[in-house]
Specification:
This protein is mostly helical and 184 residues long. Helices cover 71% and strands 0% of the residues.
Protein backbone atom coordinates (compact mmCIF):
# COMPACT_ATOMS: atom_id res chain seq x y z
CA UNK A 1 0.00 0.00 0.00
CA UNK A 2 2.78 2.49 0.96
CA UNK A 3 4.67 1.41 -2.12
CA UNK A 4 1.74 2.23 -4.40
CA UNK A 5 1.31 5.58 -2.65
CA UNK A 6 4.97 6.46 -3.23
CA UNK A 7 4.65 5.48 -6.88
CA UNK A 8 1.48 7.55 -7.32
CA UNK A 9 2.93 10.66 -5.71
CA UNK A 10 5.34 11.04 -8.63
CA UNK A 11 2.42 11.92 -10.89
CA UNK A 12 1.26 14.70 -8.59
CA UNK A 13 4.60 16.19 -7.65
CA UNK A 14 5.42 18.77 -10.31
CA UNK A 15 5.58 22.10 -8.54
CA UNK A 16 4.43 20.62 -5.23
CA UNK A 17 7.02 20.86 -2.49
CA UNK A 18 4.73 18.99 -0.07
CA UNK A 19 4.74 15.96 -2.38
CA UNK A 20 8.51 16.10 -2.77
CA UNK A 21 8.89 16.34 1.02
CA UNK A 22 6.64 13.31 1.45
CA UNK A 23 8.68 11.33 -1.08
CA UNK A 24 11.96 12.31 0.55
CA UNK A 25 10.61 11.22 3.94
CA UNK A 26 9.97 7.67 2.71
CA UNK A 27 13.48 7.23 1.35
CA UNK A 28 14.22 5.74 4.77
CA UNK A 29 11.09 3.56 4.94
CA UNK A 30 11.59 0.05 6.30
CA UNK A 31 10.27 -1.52 3.08
CA UNK A 32 12.68 -1.60 0.14
CA UNK A 33 9.92 -1.44 -2.45
CA UNK A 34 8.62 1.78 -0.86
CA UNK A 35 12.12 3.29 -0.97
CA UNK A 36 12.58 2.20 -4.60
CA UNK A 37 9.22 3.64 -5.67
CA UNK A 38 9.99 6.89 -3.82
CA UNK A 39 13.26 7.25 -5.74
CA UNK A 40 11.48 6.50 -9.03
CA UNK A 41 8.78 9.06 -8.20
CA UNK A 42 11.40 11.69 -7.32
CA UNK A 43 13.19 11.02 -10.60
CA UNK A 44 9.91 11.57 -12.47
CA UNK A 45 9.74 15.15 -11.16
CA UNK A 46 12.61 17.19 -12.66
CA UNK A 47 12.69 19.86 -9.95
CA UNK A 48 12.47 17.17 -7.27
CA UNK A 49 15.67 15.51 -8.48
CA UNK A 50 17.57 18.76 -8.19
CA UNK A 51 16.14 19.48 -4.74
CA UNK A 52 16.77 15.92 -3.52
CA UNK A 53 20.43 15.47 -4.40
CA UNK A 54 21.60 15.22 -0.77
CA UNK A 55 18.86 12.71 0.04
CA UNK A 56 19.67 10.64 -3.04
CA UNK A 57 23.40 10.69 -2.30
CA UNK A 58 22.56 9.31 1.15
CA UNK A 59 20.21 6.70 -0.37
CA UNK A 60 23.02 5.32 -2.54
CA UNK A 61 24.14 3.37 0.54
CA UNK A 62 20.85 1.45 0.64
CA UNK A 63 21.40 -2.26 1.30
CA UNK A 64 18.99 -3.22 -1.51
CA UNK A 65 20.39 -3.25 -5.05
CA UNK A 66 17.11 -2.19 -6.70
CA UNK A 67 17.03 0.99 -4.62
CA UNK A 68 20.68 1.75 -5.45
CA UNK A 69 19.97 1.18 -9.16
CA UNK A 70 17.14 3.69 -9.12
CA UNK A 71 19.22 6.21 -7.15
CA UNK A 72 22.09 5.98 -9.64
CA UNK A 73 19.69 6.49 -12.55
CA UNK A 74 18.03 9.47 -10.80
CA UNK A 75 21.38 11.11 -10.02
CA UNK A 76 22.26 10.90 -13.70
CA UNK A 77 19.32 13.20 -14.44
CA UNK A 78 20.18 16.07 -12.13
CA UNK A 79 21.43 19.50 -13.06
CA UNK A 80 22.93 20.48 -9.70
CA UNK A 81 25.83 19.47 -7.49
CA UNK A 82 27.49 17.59 -10.29
CA UNK A 83 30.88 17.33 -8.56
CA UNK A 84 29.34 15.57 -5.55
CA UNK A 85 27.26 13.40 -7.84
CA UNK A 86 30.26 12.38 -9.94
CA UNK A 87 32.03 11.35 -6.74
CA UNK A 88 28.99 9.34 -5.60
CA UNK A 89 28.56 7.69 -9.00
CA UNK A 90 32.29 6.91 -9.16
CA UNK A 91 31.96 5.17 -5.81
CA UNK A 92 28.97 3.22 -7.21
CA UNK A 93 31.20 1.80 -9.93
CA UNK A 94 32.47 -0.59 -7.24
CA UNK A 95 28.97 -1.68 -6.18
CA UNK A 96 28.56 -5.46 -5.79
CA UNK A 97 25.51 -5.31 -8.08
CA UNK A 98 26.45 -5.37 -11.79
CA UNK A 99 23.40 -3.41 -12.92
CA UNK A 100 24.19 -0.66 -10.42
CA UNK A 101 27.76 -0.48 -11.77
CA UNK A 102 26.45 -0.33 -15.32
CA UNK A 103 23.90 2.39 -14.51
CA UNK A 104 26.56 4.42 -12.70
CA UNK A 105 28.79 4.28 -15.80
CA UNK A 106 25.86 5.29 -18.03
CA UNK A 107 25.06 8.21 -15.73
CA UNK A 108 28.70 9.33 -15.73
CA UNK A 109 28.71 9.18 -19.53
CA UNK A 110 25.85 11.67 -19.52
CA UNK A 111 27.94 14.17 -17.55
CA UNK A 112 30.61 14.00 -20.25
CA UNK A 113 33.74 16.03 -19.33
CA UNK A 114 32.39 16.75 -15.86
CA UNK A 115 33.08 13.06 -15.14
CA UNK A 116 36.85 13.35 -15.62
CA UNK A 117 37.44 12.61 -11.93
CA UNK A 118 35.89 9.16 -12.46
CA UNK A 119 38.33 8.09 -15.19
CA UNK A 120 40.40 5.87 -12.85
CA UNK A 121 37.33 3.97 -11.66
CA UNK A 122 35.92 3.68 -15.19
CA UNK A 123 39.29 2.43 -16.45
CA UNK A 124 39.26 -0.33 -13.80
CA UNK A 125 35.72 -1.25 -14.82
CA UNK A 126 36.95 -2.19 -18.31
CA UNK A 127 38.10 -5.41 -16.63
CA UNK A 128 34.69 -6.15 -15.04
CA UNK A 129 33.36 -9.71 -15.24
CA UNK A 130 30.08 -8.54 -16.87
CA UNK A 131 30.17 -7.53 -20.54
CA UNK A 132 27.39 -4.93 -20.18
CA UNK A 133 29.37 -3.21 -17.43
CA UNK A 134 32.54 -3.23 -19.56
CA UNK A 135 30.55 -1.82 -22.47
CA UNK A 136 29.09 0.99 -20.33
CA UNK A 137 32.56 1.79 -19.01
CA UNK A 138 34.01 2.04 -22.52
CA UNK A 139 31.13 4.28 -23.59
CA UNK A 140 31.61 6.48 -20.53
CA UNK A 141 35.33 6.85 -21.20
CA UNK A 142 34.46 7.75 -24.80
CA UNK A 143 31.84 10.31 -23.70
CA UNK A 144 34.23 12.03 -21.32
CA UNK A 145 36.33 12.76 -24.37
CA UNK A 146 39.47 13.74 -22.48
CA UNK A 147 42.14 11.26 -23.47
CA UNK A 148 44.50 10.46 -20.64
CA UNK A 149 47.11 7.75 -20.35
CA UNK A 150 44.75 5.85 -18.06
CA UNK A 151 41.70 6.09 -20.34
CA UNK A 152 43.64 5.28 -23.52
CA UNK A 153 45.29 2.28 -21.82
CA UNK A 154 41.89 1.03 -20.66
CA UNK A 155 40.40 1.48 -24.13
CA UNK A 156 43.36 -0.36 -25.67
CA UNK A 157 42.77 -3.21 -23.23
CA UNK A 158 39.09 -3.24 -24.21
CA UNK A 159 39.99 -3.71 -27.90
CA UNK A 160 41.03 -7.24 -26.87
CA UNK A 161 37.81 -7.97 -24.95
CA UNK A 162 36.01 -11.28 -25.44
CA UNK A 163 32.78 -9.42 -26.31
CA UNK A 164 32.54 -8.05 -29.86
CA UNK A 165 30.43 -5.02 -28.79
CA UNK A 166 33.05 -3.99 -26.23
CA UNK A 167 35.89 -4.42 -28.74
CA UNK A 168 34.03 -2.44 -31.40
CA UNK A 169 33.12 0.40 -29.04
CA UNK A 170 36.67 0.58 -27.70
CA UNK A 171 38.14 0.70 -31.20
CA UNK A 172 35.78 3.50 -32.21
CA UNK A 173 36.49 5.40 -29.00
CA UNK A 174 40.24 5.16 -29.57
CA UNK A 175 39.85 6.41 -33.13
CA UNK A 176 37.98 9.46 -31.78
CA UNK A 177 40.47 9.97 -28.93
CA UNK A 178 43.70 9.67 -30.86
CA UNK A 179 43.34 12.82 -33.01
CA UNK A 180 42.67 14.75 -29.80
CA UNK A 181 45.64 13.15 -28.05
CA UNK A 182 47.94 13.75 -31.03
CA UNK A 183 46.90 17.40 -31.26
CA UNK A 184 47.69 17.99 -27.57
Amino acid sequence: MRSQAARSLGGFGAGRSDVVSALKSVLSDEAADVRAHAVAAISAIPEAINDSVADLVTAIADPVAEVRRKVVAALGNTERSRAAIVQTLAHSLADPDAETRMRAAVSLAGFRQESRAAIPQLARLVGDSVAEVRQASVEALDSIGVPSLESVSALEEATRDTDERVRSSATAALERAMPVANAA
